[in-house]
Each structure stands twice: as C-alpha cells, then as structure tokens.
Amino acid sequence: MTTIDRDVVIIGAGASGLTAATALHKAGLTVAVLEARDRVGGRLWTDEIEGAMLEIGGQWVSPDQHALKDTLAELGLATYPRYRSGQNVYINGAGVVSRFDGEIFPVPEGTEAQIVGLIEKLDALVAEIDPDSPWEHPLAKELDEVSFSHWLETQTDDQEARDNIGMFIAGAMLTKPAHAFSALQALLMAASAGSFSNLVDSDFILDERVIGGLQQVPLLLAEKLGGDVYLGQPVRSVTWNDAGVTIVADGMTVTARHAIVAVPPPLISRISFVPPLPRRQQQLHQHLSMGFVIKVHAVYETPFWRADDLSGTAFSPYELVHEAYDNTNFADPRGTLVGFVSDEEADAVFALSADERKARILESLSHYYGEQALHPVVYYESDWGSEEWTRGAYAASFDMGGLARYGSELRSPVGPISFSCSDMAGKGYQHVDGAIRVGQDTAAAIIALRVRA
Ligand code: FDA
C-alpha cells in the first residue's frame, strides 16, 4: 500500500473539499484529496442518459450566491437563465388546475391573505436570525422544540395556506415532512437564502444554470489539483493526536498535519476515529439526517408546453410531483421537464415497481402540462437514497431540538481535524454556495494556524 505525506489531507472531493484543497494549495501547502467514488463532484453530477445531458444532482444558481458565482467566474463558466416566459400552473386540493402569473398561487382571497401574512411573519423572524448562528436567537430553544407543521398550526387555521407555506420548506428544501423538523430549522433554511420571500420566489432561488452543467465546478477544480486527487479511495480510519493524522483508505495511507472531513455529516460515523471523536461530536452527528427526494427528468422532442404559453413552472402541495420546471438545456431543441417527489411520497413510490412508479410520476406531470407529458423520449429518476456515499438528498438537517442543542459545535475542529460541507453552512446552507463558503473558511482557518505556528 502506498504511503504519502502532506500538510493537509482532505476526505471527499465534493465542491466543499475541492474548494478547501484549492485554497490550501494556492497558499503553498501540500494537499491530498481522497475520494471514495470513481468520480469527483459528490452531489454534483452531470451525465448523459440515452443521449440526453442530465444534471443528476445540484444545478441551479441564485443571485445572492456570491461564493459560487465568484467560483464560476474564476473557472470561466457561463450561465443561462431558467426559462420562465408564460404562465405558471397551480393545482388545488380538489384537483382544480389554474394558471397564474407572479409568486402567489391562485387561491381564495382569504387564503391568499393568510399566505401573505405568513410570508411577512416569516420574513420578520428570518431577519432576526443570523444563518451562521441561528442558535443565538433569543427564542432559539423554544423555536427548536416545536415542529414547523405545529408552528404553522399556531399561526393560521387555513389548511391550504399552511400546506403551501409548509411545502416551500418541507417538500421543496429540507425534503422531510414538516412534522419532522423544527421551526428553527425552517428559519435557518430561509435565512440561508436571505429571506423567506427569496425561497418562495422560484425566479430568485432557481435563477440560472451553468452551460454544460454545474459538475464542471468540481471537475475543473480537480483538474487544476492534478495528481493530488485520488479516486476510488474510501477513507476507513483516521488516527489522530495533536501532532497530526494518519488516514487509511482502501488503497493508500496518508500522514498529514491537518485533516478536513468534507463528507455529509451522516456519513462521518462510517469512518473509524482513533481515538474516538469527543462525545459532543459523536452525539451531534447522530442528530443530523439526510432528506429524501427523487429528482425526475423527462425529456421531450420539443418543449411542447411553451407553445401553450406555459412557463413550465408548476406547484401543488397535493400532487405527487409537488413542483416542476422547464429544465431544457442551453441551445437544446429538445425540451426537458424536471419534477420533484419528496419525503413520504418518495417512500410510497419506491414501494412500487419501476414501471408503476414511472407511470404515477408521469401521470402527475400530465396534470400540470397535459397528455403530452405522458410520453417523454428519455425518462430518468435521480435516486440519491441508494448512493453509498451520499444516502439521501438534498442534504442533512437536524432532528427536533438538535440545532439549538448542538449547532454551535457543528463546524468546530477537533485537534487536527476540521469539518467542511454544504450541510454545515450558514449562508448557502444545503447549497453549492454553502459548500464553497465552508470550504474557503475551513482552509483559511488552517492557513491562519500555520502562519501563527
Ligand atoms: P458532497 O456530498 O457533494 O461531497 C462529499 C464527497 O465525499 C462525495 O464526493 C463523497 O463521495 C465523498 N465521501 C463520502 N464519504 C467518504 C469517505 N469515507 N472517504 C472518501 N470520500 C468520501 N445545490 C444547489 O446549490 N443548487 C441546486 O439546484 C441543488 N439541487 C440539488 C439536487 C439534488 C438531487 C441534490 C442531491 C443536491 C442538490 N443541491 C443543490 C445540493 C448540492 O448539490 C450540495 O449541497 C453540494 O453539492 C454538496 O457539496 P459537498 O462538497 O458539501 O458534499
């Protein structure tokens, strides 16, 4: 088995680990990035499926994601706007299909007033929350003890208003049912995007895509690091003391002064730490779990919905596919729809055969776009729940009470070991922007230590 020695070893070649490695390398430190998979990018993955280029993981960029935007500019990657001309579609609990413009769904006047009121209330609360330290809010403990669904029940009796506001954080973001996470966790999700209004505004949060796919970010970062990135190297153990670490992967051993564990928090406990991590870390990692969503890609000969003056943007908390968008690739004559099936709905369709699942999902898309949606030329389901080195999507969040109890130690280093991941971010939490921000901060902290030493 090969043994190499470096200043810093990074476990995980996702956006976060590669960003940290790049910054350290630029500062003159030697690095090795060990990646379990046979590719880089983690939850960023662009692949060709039956002749269609699909972004199987993360893809959208929003205007406030400056860390990601700066990285795109540095790497020379161009973006293009998501198609949004025409009308959006909403389906209510009775199955009535309506078209609408703007952000507020076509609901009865009273429900609309409740939705607007809830958005204002959430925006006001979010304005008081620092996404980097939500546990410092004076009501943090109280807000972390109540589920988001229960919190919504205390605000309004209007079920449709609750279902819609709940959907934006539950099905659409944390991809867990609204009873499974706290109001504080919901506020962090919104604060990480600047405001709750930003999350509700698909033209903001799903603004642009990268020509050629967002996986180019980790691919280009890895290319610049060259031979310092080692694929097919799942790290099994980290032996550590104050002087440094010895890391054993399947095909190599790395000794280093510092280690960065850049994997999703629920996977950290798959690595044996010798001696074990302190009890606080061992506990806090167990209180974080991945959400679960199926990203469905349906490619058609043409973007047929555009001819019907539809933007492709569609929502319903009552549909199997709770949100869907025009996801046509840049300069592609074919049309692509992307839809999302979250949490308990995803559990239910994974209990079906692949054919039955496809039929149910396409049926749901047809409720928004009509019969033509039933006949894609390419159909693909991103299933991150079955990926050994991710185990869910989009990212990890705390269980009830976990954020106030453990959040402040989420990013605390232990001896020579630091932690870096989108799931540990404040601003950009659960997004590539957050992965990059935490990667930069983690690298800066190690560089600062070296300067002081
Ligand atoms: P990431 O999980 O990407 O990287 C961790 C790496 O560690 C992986 O490569 C893994 O293989 C490796 N690893 C794990 N254990 C290991 C071990 N023991 N040894 C060695 N390596 C190990 N974001 C966004 O900004 N816009 C969007 O539109 C979306 N949409 C979206 C859709 C879907 C379907 C998904 C799954 C995710 C998104 N996201 C997103 C989220 C975004 O993709 C995600 O937050 C970041 O890519 C995470 O980057 P990290 O580097 O933090 O973790």
From TrEMBL:
Q: Which cofactor does it need?
A: FAD
Instruction: Enumerate the spans annotated as Amine oxidase domain.
Output: 16-447
Binding-site positions, FAD:
S16, E35, A36, V235
The organism encoding this protein is Cryobacterium serini
Kindly give the SUPFAM superfamilies that the UniProt entry links to this protein: FAD-linked reductases, C-terminal domain (SSF54373), FAD/NAD(P)-binding domain (SSF51905)
Q: Which family does it belong to?
A: Belongs to the flavin monoamine oxidase family.
InterPro entries in UniProt:
Amino_oxidase, FAD/NAD-bd_sf, Flavin_amine_oxidase, Flavin_MAO
User: What PANTHER family does this protein map onto?
Assistant: AMINE OXIDASE, AMINE OXIDASE [FLAVIN-CONTAINING] B
* Name used for this protein in its record: FAD-dependent oxidoreductase
Q: Where, by residue number, does substrate bind? A: F340
The entry's keywords = Oxidoreductase
